Amino acid sequence: MKTILPILTAVLLFVCAACSPKANEIDDLFTRVEKLNIQRGDYTLAKSLTDKQKQTAQRHAVEAPSPRTYKFNDADIFVVVDKATDRVLVLYERYEPIGREKIRELVGNLFFNFGDPTTMAHDKIIYWAFDEKGKISEENYREAKKEGRPLQTLATVKLDSSHRIMDKTRPVVNGSVYYIISSEPILKLHQAQNS
Could you read off the pLDDT of 169-183 as tens digits, one per residue? Predict the structure, then answer.
């Protein structure tokens, strides 16, 4: 019995040491993204839910995309959370059908929250990208693209509209719009750890 205890302790320490780098890596990513303070409503990407938010999650639970997460809605905002840490993985809103005024209202709110976007595409998609220092400017984005230099993006806000956002010539009938706030590095690591 005396020899089994040291062996079990050594095995346990080995297993913990083997698992901890990945755990530390995702904890580090969560902390770095949380510092960016990317918020929508009362929720911050990568931040742990408060007790009040956890109560809201219990009252308004919806089916989660993975067994390692839980999902809920708070008014129009949907929140996907890591079960192990209660940290926010994804925030999003989706509206369908929707008219032009509602699309513009949502775009205006996001501009108010995040400032000028990093880039736009086809007048239907808007991106705000963030690195360690904060939001990546359009100028820095264009320079990196021109030089073929990859951006070290930690998080993004992506808005996607079914209709051109600035087009006033045609009415929007049965349009749709959504935005999603997430951190691709966190999502990739979370998926790798949980697959």
Answer: 766 567 889 999 999
The ranges assigned to domains in the chain are 25-193
pLDDT tens-place string over residues 98-138: 887 888 889 999 999 999 999 999 889 999 999 999 999 99
d(CA 94, CA 141): 27
DSSP 50: P
Other C-beta atoms closer than 10 Å to the C-beta of 88 total 28
Q: What is the three-class DSSP state of 164?
A: coil
What is the rounded distance in angstroms from the CA atom of residue 50 to the CA atom of residue 48? 6
Give the C-alpha separation, 32 to 154, whole Å: 8
The model's pTM is 0.85
Instruction: Name residue 102's amino acid.
Output: K
Q: Tokens 């000028």 appear where?
A: 116
Residue 136, amino acid:
I
Q: Exposure string (b/e) for 91-110, b if CB count within 10 Å is 16 or more? A: bbbebeebebeebbebbeeb
Q: How many CB atoms lie within 10 A of CB 127?
A: 18
